[in-house]
Amino acid sequence: MTWDWSAVADFLPSFADGLLVTLQVLVLGSLISFTLGLVWAAGLRGRSRLVRWPVTAVTDFVRTTPLLVQLFFLYFVLPEWGVQFSALTTGTLAIGLHYSTYTAQVYKAGIDAVPAGQWEAARALSLPAHRTWSAVILPQAVRRVAPALGNYVIAMLKDTPLLAGISVLEMLQRARLESADTFQYTEPLTVVGVAFILIAYPASLLVRTLERRLVH
Amino acid sequence: MTMGLWQNWVLPGIWVTVQLLVYSALLGAVVAFGVGMARTHRSRLVRFAATAYTEIFRGVSALVLMFWLFFVVPPLLGWQLVPMWAAVLALGLSYGAYGAEVVRGGLAAVPPAQREAAVALSLTPWQRMRLVLLPQAVPEMLPSFCNLLVELLKGTALVSLLGVGDVSFAAYLVRLATQDSAQIYTAVLVIYFVLALGVTRSMKALERRAKANLGMVVK
């Protein structure tokens, strides 16, 4: 079995389209997980047990069950409930929802790590609640959570191939279609594997730099 | 859903999932300790190789790695991996890379004086690792390993895309048979949740015992 550069060349146009889909899922999925995660985090810190308990139960359940099964759940069950989304939309929602339960933990830890004295000082200055959050707590929490959020974006990137399972045309699915066409598995799959390293490694270096700059 | 579907597909599927978890966790542990300890090695070459390993295997998606091992390695090497073993290999190698970071962090967290004392007693590097560093580092690693095991359990679902008959694959077949997706997928999610609960409970018990041996108390 020899390496065939022409197979690589044949795959590249389709690969480029797949890369765009992957990045699109990544950006939208990140946005969903960042915002929804903040909602969960607020729930996890809620004053009433009636809020805290259900939010804890739901996020723990979503976090400890496989994304792939959740993906199939949404893809097959939503239409039964009369909600029809495209595979791409379903996949993006599933990734965003799954990772929101991780970002929720990150936000919660970040907010908890702000020293209690900061809360007390804000209260002593009789700042209103929204000013306490926007001017005192969140600016300090964001520095702590940014690197961890970055790590989850990288984790999300590595989970985007699961969307091939519901035939979203991202990188892996393009490679599968290409190999099914030409019976050459080596080149397309290797191109996709290398692409992941080429994106994930610089990204993780970036997150590490961010961590050094912001946290310490 | 009929009894037959449970007995013929879902229950054996759960068993396959548990087997996958155990085998790939064992392989992952070997990789994690091997690579993690290599990252503290004196030789720069060994350290570089170990670092390269973790960066590569943490960089590639586990599913892509699984497809690669299943479709690319056979023509390269001239032999075919059974899907189950391609899956175990992919899961063990990639989650082992995450575990290597845990091992490295755990070893780095042992107070430097312990290492110096071991050197002063002229223990060999291997004795130092085995008698001084690991016994103190391992209990500290257990909570991270617990999280990794849950991630690995979730990762086993990927094998259903290679056609390995785990519980996710069983869900797919049952859906085709009954046309009722909500019921089977809810059941399977609950099954994973219960398995994960089993993992976290046993790891917590293990951690408590390991720390008790060092005279520490887990909250």
UniProtKB/TrEMBL annotation, chain A:
Keyword check for Transmembrane helix: yes
GO cellular component, one term: ATP-binding cassette (ABC) transporter complex
Gene Ontology MF: a single term: transmembrane transporter activity
PROSITE patterns from the UniProt entry: ABC_TM1
Chain ranges of the ABC transmembrane type-1 domain: 19-207
GO annotation (BP), single: amino acid transport
Pfam families xrefs: BPD_transp_1 (PF00528)
Subcellular localization: Cell membrane
Protein's UniProt keywords contain Acetylation: no
Keywords noted in UniProt: Amino-acid transport, Cell membrane, Membrane, Transmembrane, Transmembrane helix, Transport
Major site of localization recorded for this protein: membrane
Domain of life, source organism: Bacteria
Similarity field: Belongs to the binding-protein-dependent transport system permease family.
Annotated protein name in UniProt: Ectoine/hydroxyectoine ABC transporter permease subunit EhuD
Source organism: Streptomyces thermolilacinus SPC6
Classification of source organism: Bacteria, Bacillati, Actinomycetota, Actinomycetes, Kitasatosporales
UniProtKB/TrEMBL annotation, chain B:
One Pfam short name: BPD_transp_1
Family: Belongs to the binding-protein-dependent transport system permease family.
Gene3D superfamilies for the chain: MetI-like (1.10.3720.10)
InterPro entries for the chain: AA_ABC_transptr_permease_3TM (IPR010065), ArtM/GltK/GlnP/TcyL/YhdX-like (IPR043429), Ectoine_EhuC (IPR014342), MetI-like (IPR000515), MetI-like_sf (IPR035906)
Key word Hydrolase present: no
Protein name: Ectoine/hydroxyectoine ABC transporter permease subunit EhuC
Positions of transmembrane segments: 20-38, 50-71, 182-199
Principal location: membrane
Location in the cell: Cell membrane
Protein's membrane topology: Multi-pass membrane protein
Limits of the ABC transmembrane type-1 domain: 14-203
CDD domains: TM_PBP2
Record-level Gene Ontology MF annotations: transmembrane transporter activity
SUPFAM superfamilies documented for this protein: MetI-like
A biological-process GO annotation: amino acid transport
Lineage: Bacteria, Bacillati, Actinomycetota, Actinomycetes, Kitasatosporales
Organism: Streptomyces thermolilacinus SPC6
Cellular component terms per the entry's GO annotation: ATP-binding cassette (ABC) transporter complex
Database matches in PROSITE patterns: ABC_TM1 (PS50928)
Key words, A-Z: Amino-acid transport, Cell membrane, Membrane, Transmembrane, Transmembrane helix, Transport
